[in-house]
């Protein structure tokens, strides 16, 4: 089954992190994924300045990913989240970048689109991480 690696970058400003539930769906040219809860066991996800990666396995190849749908749901109290960007590593090894750079405040769905219109190079910030 195809697997996508989803990397989520939380902002580094005060209170940017969240303990809310974050669900992700991938929508591609060939289909849509199920809704996945992004959660690593025994780990505090989406803290300030964190870059967290999750493997999302899907039943069938989704083709080129066009949209990401993020849903934030309350865990205990309302906990705003500053999402910088999400990258998706495709089964082919290509990376797609979905910029957000905004606060997600309520319990709502947001839709992120591929920010570059070109998917065959690694984003420069990943090159920086790999080169450092
Ligand atoms: Ca917060
Ligand atoms: Ca957290």
From TrEMBL:
Taxonomy of the source species: Eukaryota, Metazoa, Chordata, Craniata, Vertebrata
PROSITE patterns: PLAT (PS50095)
Residues annotated as binding Ca(2+) 1: 17, 79-80
Gene3D superfamilies cross-referenced by the UniProt entry: PLAT/LH2 domain
Pfam families: PLAT
CDD domains per the UniProt record, alphabetical: PLAT_LOX (cd01753)
Site entry (Essential for stabilizing binding to COTL1), positions: 103
Signal peptide: none
GO molecular function: iron ion binding; oxidoreductase activity, acting on single donors with incorporation of molecular oxygen, incorporation of two atoms of oxygen
Family per similarity comment: Belongs to the lipoxygenase family.
Start and end residues of each PLAT domain: 2-118
Keywords: Calcium, Metal-binding
Stored InterPro entries: Inner_ear_hair_cell_LOXHD, LipOase_mml, PLAT/LH2_dom, PLAT/LH2_dom_sf, PLAT_LOX_verte
Annotated source species: Strigops habroptila (Kakapo)
Designated name of the protein: PLAT domain-containing protein
Binding site for Ca(2+) 2: 39
Domain of life: Eukaryota
